Amino acid sequence: MPAAPQRFVLGYAVGWLALAALLIPLFVVSGALSWTEAVLFLIPLTGVYAAVCGSSRYLASSSLLEGNSFARVLFVVVPAVVASGFWTLLAALSAPIAARALPAPDMASRFNAQLPLLFGVGVLVYLLYTAFNELGRQAERSRLAEVRAVEATMMARDAELRALKAQVNPHFLFNSLHSISALTSIDPARARETCILLADFLRSTLGLGDRAAISFGEELDLTRKYLGVEQVRFPGRMEVEESISPDSLDVLVPPLLLQPLFENAVKHGVSTMSSGGWLKIRAGIQDGALLLELDNAYDPEAPVRRGHGVGLSNVRKRLEARYGDAAGITAVPSGSVWTTRLRLPVERKEKA
Amino acid sequence: MTAIKAMIVDDEDLARHYLREMLSHHGDIEVIAECSNGFEAVKEVSSRRPDLLFLDIQMPKLDGFEVLDLLDPGIAVVFVTAFDSYAIRAFEVHAVDYLLKPFSEKRFEEALSRARLRIGASPAPPAPEATELAAAARPPSEFLCRIVARDGANIHIIPVEKVDYVEAQEDYVLLKTAGKGILKRQTISSLEASLDPDRFVRIHRSLLVNIERIARIEPLKRDSKVVVLRDGTQLPVSRSGLDRLKALLGEEA
To answer: Which chain A residues touch B if contact means CB-CB below 8 Å?
Structure first.
């Protein structure tokens, strides 16, 4: 709908007056009407046609214009013929009335002889009018599509930013540094090793902000580094078991998508258990989608920790912004195992 | 001079080891126990009665706040945590000190000096009840999900939705769940403050009721009413308690 109805109505009136200005000389030159007759009769008549077209403009609405070309032509031409026919009929019926009112006794017969001309102009104008409307609709539609695209990009960027902010969970960082600090006197070699592991993880996350996608294999490496650091904190409480199908490794995924899932598995899983914690990672391709399953042991009786669901909802939002309905994530507990399932469409780097 | 008896509570081996190492430089301090989860901590503290407790917050089974909630007052507590700043504010007011991981030996010495002052002070400065400290450390918009209570060596963990009502008994509260009663040393007002006010209503000076357990409200005598719970229990309602109930249930009450 037009944003400014007043401007719309004004434009409409100007358009139809222009049509009248075209019709008047046409009928004068063809010898059907005198100048006075033409002005007095044709201006109101064009006004009537404006109303006819205006009220039928939703008939030829966009849904009808999306079929094949024959149907499309039919849906444009038929209303044009009908509208113009109706208009011509009105003109033929009102000509005698005008002739008596003017008065100009033979005007009706002179005018009626030129009815085919009126009909032709009517069809032509209706077609032009439809085309004009359609153009407007297309412009509106592409504007809307553009707005939606911009919104999606902004959401994705936003999610990216949130993910990047969350990438180095301060608790994780402080606790790991504390472990390193403790190790320096017990096992200096291990302290150095852990330092390097932590630095490796941090460095790999830093470069990722600029990249739209990384391979699933790279993403897995990143989580392995992360888990490696956490294993120093929780020795014996963090068995990690992997079963990754090789054809999934080159699938492209948004960077750091998995990180919050693994952080959750540690924060709400492993760290709630006094001993015997574990994580199981399975990944593979199924029906054109990458499936990742992450199981982790947890203690259902453990104290509730804050921040549950924030990481997960961020992942969900990022998936939605990028893949729409084609991707999804669920996380459900069952007994003392928490299972997170992630599914996203397979995209691969094009081979150069 | 007798040694100060200290205990270390942390679920991470390395973190415990670090504290043990720091403490080993001080001859007047004896580490009497180390615990890796909240249950152990509560049991050890009640049987061995330390003077000083180094306490982590995020732990399996019971977290640091819940441990604190179950301890007898009078123990000097130093928090050792990587926890958020709002919690730290509460510690600043109430705890002897807090150590943020990772911390230096110098910072540790400071905490230890403060603890020595607290332990050696005679008479001991008025320390807040552990329960009040635990309540103060909770973020303002968050309510308890479960209540911990202890009788002797038994620790009860009661999810708040299982509580029918709470009755004040002098310095204690009696938590009624499915006909059983569990005593906890806490004032009814401080418990009320840590529970969701949309779920628990103070219907009487000494009664806090789970609104989901209320079956109906019946007139008792002229001008007075009783709340009848689903299991048939009748509880007296004060005038202001009735107003609070009405506000929460809408005018049909």
So the answer is: 170-171, 174-175, 177-183, 185-186, 232-235, 271-274, 299, 301-306
